Amino acid sequence: MSTILVTGGTGNLGALVVGMLREQGHEVRALSRSSAEFPVDLRDGSGLDAALAGAQVVVHCASSPRGGDDVAARHLIDAARRAGTVTNLVYISIVGVDVVPLGYYRTKLRVERMLEDSGLGVTILRTTQFHDLVARVTGVAARLPLPVVPLPKGVRVQPVAVEEVADRLAELAVPEAAGRVPDVGGPEARPLEEWAGVWLAATGSRRRVLGVPLAGRAYAACRRGGILAAPGRAVGRITFDDYVERRGRVRGTGRA
After folding, report:
1. Which positions fall inside the NAD(P)-binding domain (predicted)?
2. Which pLDDT tens digit goes with each residue over 200-221?
């Protein structure tokens, strides 16, 4: 069994990856700034050398839409080189980072290229958006003091279950690097307005969703399908309806 390090190991995705790998019998180091055993701050690289000592595989799940992913990746790459034992650095990226000119996407693409140029063994997996992103975006729009819920018009979204992505990352967390692997997309693509309507109905809201056309190259790229997986890569099985139903059951038990 391998010694595997997971950045963002207490996050939505990372915690699932950690649990799956530990069930398989691996020694797993879940990194975070608050970890008692392996306190690591990717913003300045502190703690990385100790955390990486003897590790063969790194699964890099830590990410922040607020920026800094490229800085964190540079610290991680440099520390992995110093460790000299890492044979596979697995990175989770997003479908469309090479065609949608959003700042966050551009940074994710920059990290991909940094890894590919690092001289380390790397594995890069791109996936479509998680189900909970649709819920969060809808929730934010629903808090606006408007009689409708405004969302970008005509943007098709292909949400995938976070647990299915975690399962794929756990499969890839082996000593042999695989390079860029096939993308993972959710089982169904629909306009965001439709997904939002499903979520609002499930949460008891009767507000109407209003599709709003936007300006800009990023919106145009999304309208062209830039955030959708290629045909044949809709390999997820858990649907958004499944996600909504499960969240409803959890809320009913008082755990959400």
Report:
1. 8-132
2. 999 999 999 999 999 999 999 9
